Amino acid sequence: MEKVHVVDHPLIKHKISIMRNEDTGPKEFRELLTEITSLLTYEATRKLPTYKTEVKTPIQLTEGEMVDDKKVTIVPILRAGLGMLDGILSLVPNASVGFLGIFRDPDSLNAVEYYVKFPEFTENHHVYIVDPMLATGHSMNYAIEVVEKHGAKNITVMSLISAPEGIKVVNEAHPEIDIYTASLDEKLNDKAYIIPGLGDAGDRLYRTK
């Protein structure tokens, strides 16, 4: 599990506790998800390569380093993944965005695809697949496979809350991929919801239930 990174910063713990509260409304829920995603992004982008550049300070010329964020693509899994988008773009504003629509079949729990729209992936592109809840892992594995089929090679997974079962499924299928999560919760219940979790992130983001 060396590829699993739980970013348990005190500020993240504080904000997740508010998000878990059933009385937290969609406006505050969205704002907190954006803030936590920014904190996660800081850690998840640590391995991004940089290039040298000349910088003229008020004193003299010096050498700096820059990230080529035009070679970064964010792929939110619709619809809940959209809630993490602004948090990443606040730090890597020139990143491209791809969209992948997946829903979980309530009977089989398998991922069902309904929409795909990606930018072109070059060999040295860095792709971040984001979804607030990593539950069974089936949707995330499906997303990884779709992104790989479109040519992506450097993939990182980001989630707000993860279940051990989902982490295991993704880790076994894709041991080379780093997973960054803000919380590793206890388990899944018999309906494949994360316990203690925070309910359905999509419904809480958009008040659809």
Describe the structure.
- Helices cover about 30% and strands about 30% of the residues.
- By secondary structure, it is an alpha/beta fold.
- The protein has a single domain, classed as 3-Layer(aba) Sandwich (Rossmann fold), CATH 3.40.50.2020.
- The chain is globular, with a radius of gyration of 17 Å.
- It starts with a strand and ends with a helix.
Offer a few descriptive terms:
209 residues; alpha/beta; Rossmann fold; two-stranded antiparallel sheet; 6 helices; globular; glycosyltransferase; EC 2.4.2.9; allosteric enzyme; GTP binding
Write a brief structural summary.
This is Uracil phosphoribosyltransferase. The chain is built from six helices and 13 strands.
Compile the SSE list and pairings.
Blueprint: E1 4-6, H1 10-20, H2 26-44, E2 50-56, E3 61-67, E4 72-78, H3 85-89, E5 96-97, E6 99-104, E7 111-117, E8 126-130, E9 133-134, H4 138-149, E10 154-162, H5 164-173, E11 178-184, E12 187-188, E13 194-195, H6 201-206
Helix pairs in contact: 1-2
Binding site for 5-phospho-alpha-D-ribose 1-diphosphate: 79, 104, 131-139, 200
EC number: 2.4.2.9
Protein name: Uracil phosphoribosyltransferase
